[in-house]
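User: Can you write out an input/output pair for a complex, sequences first and structure second?

Assistant: Here is one pair. Inputs:
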Amino acid sequence: MESVKKSPGFFAAIKKNLRFARSQLLIPYALFLALFVVFPLLIILYYAFTDKSGAFTFKNFTNFFSDATAISVLLVSVGIAAVTTVVCLLLSYPVCYILARSNLKKKHVLLMLFVIPMWINFVLRINALREFLGMIGLLGLNDFANYFNTTLGMVFDYLPFMILPIYTTLIKMDKSLIEAAKDLGADNKTVFLKVTLPMSAPGIISGVTMVFMPTMTSYVISESLGLRKVIILGKLIDNYFTELHNWNMGSAIALVLLVIILVSMLITGQFKDKNLENRGAGLW
Amino acid sequence: MVKKSIKWIYLALVLLFLYTPLLLLIVYSFTNSDIVGNWQGFSFALYIRLFKNKEIMGMVRDTMVLALLAATVSTILGTLGAIGLFYSKKRTASVVEYVSNIPLVNTEIVTAVSLALLFSLLSGRSYFSLLTGHVVICVPFVVLSVMPKLKQMDPHLYEAALDLGATPARAMFKIVLPEILPGIIAGFMLAVTLSLDDYIVTAFTAPEGFDTISTYVYNAVKTPRNDLPALRALSALIFVAIILIVLGFNLIKTKNDTKQRSEK
């Protein structure tokens, strides 16, 4: 307070500058993002479009899309991700619907039981599933079992990520709309198809992107449960970096993946804060 | 009536799918056998082996320290970032926010590979690269947790504090910080969870010989030189601890929420 008496002009200047400083608090974070998010992605871009000697080339991409093994990896990844997403959706929707419509006072606690696995280290959970599959004799039984177990593991791991966003949209839904539809003579089936389902679409889209994208690359699951015989995109990238030491090829595949992700996120509007919060920020 | 019981049976079946492997592992952590399914009588042998295994205990400690460190850095950086974003011009804010959301929607392998390339150009892999990697995946979630609290805050409070003679720094600490504290705490806990859960970024940024629970367990399965049964005891402890913590935390939260509502 003494400084105020000494020179009010000086204090006002500081006050003005410090008020300005509120937006300057962004600087460390912006620098961090520039150095550790944007710049590394630019390095991927560079490696993807150059060869080992550093000369510009499209070869990494043409090689990838003309390589039968790479294409089969891509198809296997998309296949496993699609089956996982559909199974997760079919399993979760009834769970969310039953919970959201129940009159239970503590339905939040019941919901917690369904999403708690999200907090438990996924390597440990997959390892538990591996031991279980080993016990019932399914682990490594045959080729089909490898794919089956991998998909089962994906569903096991990602189910909570589908449940949470769908439950959130169902619980927030305006119940008077359902009553209005019933008053207007709609039967239960029509109410569900014309009101509930369309209104929960944002939750479904959110859940689908949160399951489909990671499943294509979550190679810890395919390696552990598919006994290293099921190769998905994530493993392919890992192979190019850690075993084949072909960073250019690895970067090209990573770039393809990145473009697919960004485009699908833009199309589905997942960049909105509201949708991103479903990714776990609302959990604790 | 029948319809109602079908509903509950369905919920129970889905829960059974999610928890059977975990319960089985917990049960078989109390018997001294190499594989799940082979019951050799009740025993604490695996737990004794676990606590006597210096390598595993050291690895668990390293994982915890890393998670707390990454969460602390992420929380400070993310909170400052959220406040800065909130008070920035719209155009600046939307650009930074867009970039901030990239690690959120990106698959971990792309983030991991991009960081591995960056650090191969810089200093190579070290504890610093590992910590940075973890902060990259945690910090956007802190921003996302703090942001809604800033938006809910009454903007006049800060101005009022300034008008009453508080310095901006004081107003920030006395007015803004308490208002957004729940978001900061939520962000911190989320960051700890994410760091503990990570495998891929750790695999691509950790220095040689450094293991977290994720990389240790994953590699222990691949090369069976490690004490796998002892890791079963470790898993059981973690499963029980997390379930109790999360349920307890949410029960307290629900209680407080209903209390607040009834007070209103």
